[in-house]
Write a structure and sequence with these properties.
single chain, mainly alpha
Length: 115
């Protein structure tokens, strides 16, 4: 009766070894699946950051263009202000001359009236 018991123990050991090997394969598959998921998630994160970097570069370009436009408008505004100031000065000078001529006429006429 010892022989059948030994055969049963061999069968149990074989099944135990097979079960352990199967468990190891499952653990490796799970680890591989988790690693693949992590790799996929990392790739998605990298792609998202790449898209964000591209968007940021585009916004930087737009901002640079807006800054250039603002500088150009500022220069035009400064030139317009200078032109306006020059025109205002010319008009004031001309009015001053006109007033002086009118004053001289009034004095002349006043003298003529006195005489």
């Amino acid at each position: 009766k010892l022989v059948p018991f030994t055969l049963d123990m061999r069968l149990v050991n074989r099944r135990k070894s097979a079960s352990q090997a199967y468990l190891e394969r499952l653990q490796n598959d799970i680890a591989g699946t988790q690693l693949n998921r992590q790799k996929q998630a990392l790739l998605e994160i990298k792609m998202h950051f790449s898209l964000l970097e591209n968007e940021l570069d585009q916004k930087d370009e737009e901002l640079f263009e807006m800054e250039q436009l603002c500088c150009s408008l500022h220069e035009k505004l400064a030139q317009s202000a200078q032109n306006f100031a020059e025109e205002a000065s010319t008009v004031a000078t001309n009015y001053g001359k006109d007033i002086e001529l009118l004053n001289n006429r009034i004095r002349s006429q006043s003298e003529e009236i006195r005489l």
